[in-house]
Give the backbone structure.
Amino acid sequence: MIHFDRENNVFHFFNEHISYVVYIDGFNRLETLYFGERLKDDRDVLQARTTANENLYLDKKMNLLTPYPGDFSPHSRLEYSDHGEMDKRDSPIVIRNENGSTYTAFEYVRHKIYHGIKPLPDLPSLDAPWKRDEPFYNRDHVDTAEFVFRDVTANLYLHEFISIYRDKDVIVKSFQVENKGKKVQLLRAFSLQLDLPTSDYYFHHFSGEQNRERKEHIEKISHSVLEIGSNYGRSSHQENPFCFLSEHENSYTDGEVIGFNLVYSGNWKMRLSPEPDRSLHIVYGISDEDFTWVLGKNESFYTPEAVLVYSHNGIDGMSQTFHRLIRENLMTAPHTESRPLLFNSWEGAYFYFTTDSLLEYADHAKELGVDLFVLDDGWFGKRDSDTSSLGDWTVNQEKIDLHRLIDHVHQLGMRFGLWFEPEMVSPNSELFRAHPEYVLGMGENKDWSSLTRSQLWLDFSSPVVIEAIHKQIHAILSEYSIDYVKWDNNRAMGEHFSNFYPAEKQGEITHRLTLGYFHLLGQLREEFPGVFFEGCASGGGRFDLGTLYFCPQIWCSDDTIGSMRATIQYDTSLGYPLSAISSHVSAALDDSYRTKVDVALFGTYGYEMNPTKLQDADKEELKRGSEIYRTYHHNVIQEGVLYHLADNDLYSSMISVSQDQSQAMALCFCKRTRPYSYQFTWKLRGLDPKKRYLCHLDHKTYSGEYLMKAGYHFCNDSYGEPLFQRGKTLLMILTESNY
């Protein structure tokens, strides 16, 4: 709901649990008065304002010292800070005018309040399908205020959209910059400014590298500016756009938490600036590194949606809200149907296969209970290694009879999928030889281009390039009965110069690349609605809300070692639902199949190895995993509620509970061996205290109240194996019992 107090110019965004309050001050700036737990009585919110009475400015026309309006301070908590005046905090929008000035001061003109959320042109948007035929979506559960401001020196308008969900503790923000005058340049176009009255928070962000994605780092905000982001052309392995502030260092159940994420997949940045008065200034959105955007007369630029989630019940309150929002309001692909148990050929076959070897793979995969057989890299062009053929998306018929393989897979009752890497090209390819101008950086003033995995990045800022790739993929999906596509992106962006745009528009390329990715993925989704798309970027290099809008699951990491995956998936699940985390059991030798199965079950679940070389004991372990998947995955993992129980130097633990609390699965992963510990009390959460549950570990029944308050007690005798061994898992399955 949004209530506008006309007498005091106060806008109160609220639902059952949270309030967000803004105010139009005497100088027509929009101040942020409050963000937090629901205010049922908002009559005192104006007391929170920061004011100053001694602001003098030189009137250039009258040559007089003129007082600034006495009720306004340049350090007020604002929705938008001006640029080029005494407020030196980062402005979310920076514009260079025709005379070279970057001064902007936007003043309130008008506003309107409406039900629903307004989709953004050419960008994934909450609650809106990619093909839009309505001006607003989800009118029953979202309310939006659109504030319009005009720059005092130019014919520029700034629109700020602030939406609140009635059924979730979520605020969504974005900007539109509208130019009705002479041509200008956007130098920065962030999505959000948030000024908080205190900087007394811990900042949690998720950094890493390939195979070590999204490791949680916690920093106490002090006096230093903190900045995270990506300039890799994608959201990146190095940092993830999901992050949060917490009142307590690491409490899942208590204290204030504010979560952030961006509905975007390209370069991004967040900057947190503690101010001398101990307030906290935050800006967040598309990275301004190498960014400019030329806005001609009557043109607009829209920033991606920035999502804010508030919880006063600790980290899990924030985490569970993000999970619900992603499943219910972001994913546009069918996501409530049970996910297929997937077999991927990569770690078993790599590039080295024949039609007959893959037919044998498929037969063995079926025995393991697989629903979907995926042929990964190596089926196209002359692709027998990673040194050629990206960009030549035609079946290598000398290597594989794809029709025969697909028919066989379908006859076995499984679906069939293919791997693509549409945004890349190999120098050793027919496409590159015919069109070197399709590659980023080819027109720059240097005689070399950076290579990673012997590949270059195609210029998806150009509709010409996008259509060339679309034509090839469309032909494959039209000729062959494909049920699934794995969309990969295996190198970071280096050069970002385009041959298709003039000099003044080169600063637009990085954003246009992301728009091109969205365009092609959205177009193929519309043309082939029955195809299931999964995201990937050399593992988890593009694990973000922009990709989840199109792909209901994303390959979490190329590291399939169970002990490494346990940490990666645990930290990823703080911001993303388990149904989005693509996880497989592989032939990696570092852990037992028991550990790899248990860890992978807390994700979408699948296999990738050479199934013809499995030992009988390993097959039985995989069949155990398949049976658990069939019985519990949809209700407990895919659609359940996730609770994070602990993450310390000894173990990490979480439990997922079905919506009706009749079933649950809990996982404890041991990080290090502790030989002197022979007992462990495992306290659970999320169960119904009045229900009794059958524990499949010991086949005894326990009340939900007992398991949450007293906990489940493990104990092994003095001659037994130490309970805590590095890499060992404890998997508990609970089902409602009448006894």
Remarks:
- Residues 616-638 form the longest helix (23 residues).
- Residues 644-737 form a domain with the Immunoglobulin-like fold (CATH 2.60.40.1180).
- The radius of gyration is 27 Å.
- The chain has three domains: 80-322, 342-555, 644-737.
